[in-house]
Amino acid sequence: MLTELKVREFGLMEDVRLEFSSAMTVFTGETGAGKSLLVDALGAVFGARASSDWVRHGAERAELNAVIENNDIRLQSLLEEQEMGVDEPLFLRRVINADGRSRAWLNGVPVPLKLLQQIGAICLDLHGQHEHQGLMQAEFQQQLVDSRVDTDALLDVKLAFECLQQARKQLNQLQHQKGESTGQAEWMRSELEKLSALDIQQGLEENLISQVETGQNIAQIQQAGAQALLLLDEGDEGNVRSLLAQASHAIEPLVAYHAGLQSASDLLAQVDALLSEIPPYLNDAQEVALDAEALQSAEDRLAALREAMRRHDMDEVGLLALMDDWQQRLSLLDTAEWDEAALNESVSKAEQDYCAQAKVLSGLRTQAIGDLVLALRPYLDRLGMPGMQVEIEMVCLQDQSSAWHASGWDDMTFMLSSNPGEPFRPLAQVASGGELSRLVLSLKACGAFIHAPAIAVFDEVDVGIGGETAWCVGELLVAMGNERQVFVVSHLPQVASCAQHHISILKTQREDRTITDLAVLQPHERVAEIARMLGGVDTESLEHAKQMLHKGQTVQ
């Protein structure tokens, strides 16, 4: 429920603050006073697309603040998903700059505008914003019928369809793979054989390069090993180790007298130990032999590997993955006939399961259609449309598997006959704007709209009606207000008389500027406003307004 709304520099509204209660609140005022602007403000605070025209002329920005009670499970779930607290109430804030850009806050924390829109989808129902257009669409019409169907039956059909889709997908994939030409399969086998012969593994190219470079530099390796060994340990004229021994011998007698000499002696000993480990490696280098056959094999394997990597434009890891993919595809081709038979059986079973669930759903929808048409009748009569006949035509597309969906195989169309004796035609072809408005109100009144938001806004739903029908509209709105918070913008004194709360919208002049003010009316002020709506404030109209207000309040 919306408990408070503050609006600053929004259109003609300079600074407005309103507190709201539950039940039905009516907004009235002269044409052009700004009633539709109030509806825009409600939409804006819940994330409607911003317009620079909303910012009052001369102001830098418009600001809207709203306080709503957080007692809807769907709203609490949304906030938990956003990792936000669910404590009530919720404080919504929207700032719209003069250039049309806007920012949003929730409980003082900056949030994406989309979050306000998601909150609005749960909390706010702007009557006439979507329903008139949506009522023309087959999907929306189906949802109205399905609101009276057991949700388990709808879920069973959805799950059965998902299983059928999965079975069909697997069969299509297999048939596509099976359809690959014999030439393609043979090419894959040939390539796979070539790649397998290379015994590919990660780092193979680097390893082969090392083998080839070693084989190509055998003589240099042997010579380097011999020369290094000579200098290290075998030379006649002072090799490295003999010189190192001489240095150690020179300082050994005096190490006890100088810390530096002691450290040098220790390090020389360590160096000698390390040098003693080098000769075996140099001997290995001297003794390496040229294996021409192994060198040629490594060169050939390296060339073949690089050619394969160039041909397929990938490294060793990519080639290994490619080989694995080809092996799986060839395996599927080899076993395709057996797999295809099994998958065909799976598809057939999934189709049978889907048909069984869809048939049950069709039966439930047939019953729901009868219930909905029957429930609509008294509301259509009360809203001045006794001649209007509504039928819901349902066509079962059981024999057209391409038309099967997660929602079943039924195609539904709302059919309308505005007058007795006239043929039934699709709703979009015959309904006027006023008829659509009252039909939507009738659907809402009989509970056809599922998960209805807690805040309903009706902007001139009573256009084109009057007299006793207008009283009926007021009564329906009051009844709806027993379960939801209802805001109504109206020109009809009958509707205004029924509301529990009444707010007047006035256009005034202040400092040479036009301003829209809103005032909560007390009972005696409501009488004067209803009299104005009747055509003029005089003794007769005031008395009539008192009678209307008394009558309207008796429908509570």
Would you kindly provide a brief summary of this structure?
With 556 residues, this protein is an alpha/beta fold. It contains 21 helices and 15 strands. Helix content is 56%, strand content 17%.
Description:
The protein is 56% helix and 17% strand. The protein has 556 residues and is of the alpha/beta class. It folds into three domains: 2-134 and 452-553, 3-Layer(aba) Sandwich (Rossmann fold); 148-173 and 340-448, Glutathione S-transferase Yfyf (Class Pi), Chain A, domain 2, CATH 1.20.1050; 182-334, no CATH class. The strands form three sheets. A six-stranded antiparallel beta sheet has the order 2-1-4-5-6-7. A six-stranded mixed beta sheet has the order 8-12-13-3-14-15. β6 (102-106) and β7 form a beta hairpin. The longest helix is centred in the middle third of the chain and has 47 residues, at 336-382. The protein is elongated, with a radius of gyration of 43 Å. It starts with a strand and ends with a helix. The model has no long low-confidence stretch (mean pLDDT 84).
